[in-house]
């Protein structure tokens, strides 16, 4: 089955001067314009294309890769706004529409927003939505403490960053646990701190326990080697300098270099460390 808004491998039925006509199976014939054909093809060949509807509503293929497909999230910029909604740049000639009733918050021209692409059932057109709640799981969150999860940064609140957890639930990463800059649309790994009784989820970005220190230790050793064996960050160094270099707290840094010292790998001074 061919699905609009996704990349598919289709077979060529016919070649013309204008382009190639592909077998779109249940979608019927899919037209691939000649300007989209990057190499010589003939009837019977297979070609990988992204399928969408052109301005006339006909299934069309492109060999270009959009920033997101149907069912995926991406940070897209608004190019224009009219009485229908906001038209967003997703990497193709034809912009994708975010209807007004799918905008939370209301979008402004020139700004970028995290959206999910979906297929509108009525028009069969690919659209964008920043109304994440409609795509979340209806099931209660069932995560174990410190379970590893995939996150997408969705926005900011007064307390911290709002994140999509496994694209199924909403969680919060509190500002006082973040030691690096985050931006909307960023994907990263996180760890469940706890699921509250009201279903709200607290999330951490750093691996807890010795695993976190071990990972940091490896980064410190790599940095030392890259800097010729000396790094001007010791156990008395400024916490902000440590955060900027390793995206971690001074406490975690001191635990890591303490472990490396006990292993006989480094010497520690007030404002620097050295490889032995």
UniProtKB/TrEMBL annotation:
It comes from the Bacteria. This is GntR family transcriptional regulator. Residues 4-64 form the Conserved virulence factor B first S1 domain. It comes from Pseudoalteromonas lipolytica. InterPro entries: CvfB_fam, CvfB_S1_st, CvfB_WH, NA-bd_OB-fold, WH-like_DNA-bd_sf. Gene3D superfamilies: Nucleic acid-binding proteins, Winged helix-like DNA-binding domain superfamily/Winged helix DNA-binding domain. Residues 218-275 form the Conserved virulence factor B-like winged helix domain. Belongs to the CvfB family.
């Amino acid at each position: 089955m061919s699905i609009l808004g996704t990349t598919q491998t289709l077979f060529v039925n016919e070649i013309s001067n204008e382009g190639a006509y592909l077998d779109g199976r249940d979608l019927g014939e899919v037209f691939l314009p000649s300007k989209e054909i990057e190499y010589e093809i003939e009837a019977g060949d297979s070609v990988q294309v992204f399928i969408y509807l052109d301005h006339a509503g006909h299934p069309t293929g492109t060999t270009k890769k959009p920033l997101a497909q149907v069912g995926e999230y991406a940070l897209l910029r608004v190019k224009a706004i009219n009485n229908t909604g906001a038209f967003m740049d997703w990497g193709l000639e034809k912009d994708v529409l975010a209807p007004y009733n799918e905008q939370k918050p209301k979008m402004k021209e020139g700004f970028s927003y995290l959206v999910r692409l979906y297929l509108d059932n009525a028009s069969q057109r690919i659209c964008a939505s920043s109304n994440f709640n409609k795509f979340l799981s209806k099931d209660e969150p069932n995560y174990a403490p410190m379970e590893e999860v995939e996150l997408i940064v969705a926005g900011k609140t007064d307390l911290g960053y709002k994140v999509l957890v496994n694209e199924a639930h909403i969680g919060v990463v509190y500002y006082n646990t973040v030691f690096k800059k985050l931006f909307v649309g960023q994907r990263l790994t996180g760890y469940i701190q706890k699921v509250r009784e009201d279903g709200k989820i607290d999330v951490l970005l750093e691996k807890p326990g010795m695993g976190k220190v071990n990972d940091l230790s490896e980064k410190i050793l790599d940095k030392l080697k890259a800097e010729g064996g000396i790094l001007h960050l010791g156990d008395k160094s400024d916490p902000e300098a440590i955060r900027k270099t390793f995206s971690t707290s001074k406490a975690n840094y001191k635990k890591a270099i303490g472990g490396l010292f006990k292993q006989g790998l480094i010497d520690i001074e007030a404002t620097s460390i050295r490889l032995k």
